[in-house]
Amino acid sequence: MTPPTTTAGGARPEVSYRAKDETGGLERVYVWDAVVRLTHWIIMLAILIQAVTGIYIGRPFFIPAGAEDQQFVMGTMKVVHSYTAIVFTLAVLVRVGWMFVGSYYARWHQFVPASARRRRDVWSMLKFYTFLSREPPLNVGHNPLAGLTYLLVFALYFTMIVTGLALYSVGAGVSYMKMWDFLLPILGGAQTARWIHHIAMWLLLGFFAHHIWSAILVSRSEGHGLIDSMFSGYKFLPRSWRKRDE
Fold first, then answer.
1. Considering the entire predicted model, what is its pTM?
2. Domain with 172 in it: what CATH number?
3. Per the count of CB atoms within 10 A, which of 132, 150, 235, 237 is most buried?
4. Is 2 part of a structural domain of the chain?
5. Closest CA to 164 of 44, 20, 57
């Protein structure tokens, strides 16, 4: 699949990714649109907040002195956890929807190696990550190995959402959130849902650590501004980037 070269309806043409200025043989290319960047950072911050508050809810690590009726640490943690979960869920749903209606490099084909070239690059990236190759293949958007990994990450996102809804229903009382209690027997009960929720959280935190390491590694090796691009949306790519079958 190649980037579209003309504007038609909701399609994002190739020309919209290219800025006019060029620097030292590299071309400034607009890769990550605002929706991709915003959901990326919102999801990241939401997970970190939920991890801290979730750990506290499961095992309080700070109990202030004073009368119990004047301390609302646990209640505050639960409220922050719940509202952050809403933001997280909305951001995940927006990002998934954007895979089908968003700009070229935000779409589903960046996560599924549909082309022969991207399937070959899965192995090339694997060799690079394991230090069997000195240079990664040129990829404008997500490299195909990262794309496959992100599919697993989104599966963990939905695992967190589903188990979180099930756990919230336990103490929902007459709230409309009680409607999610049908998930409890499917998940094997509240305790199993809680266990799955915790395991998924630790897997996501482990992915975050790897994600930071791999982003630094690829950014230093490519020199295309990978990390900066998640703030600005732009990468600096060799002019031959159009020849790559994205």
1. 0.83
2. 1.20.950.20
3. 235
4. no
5. 57
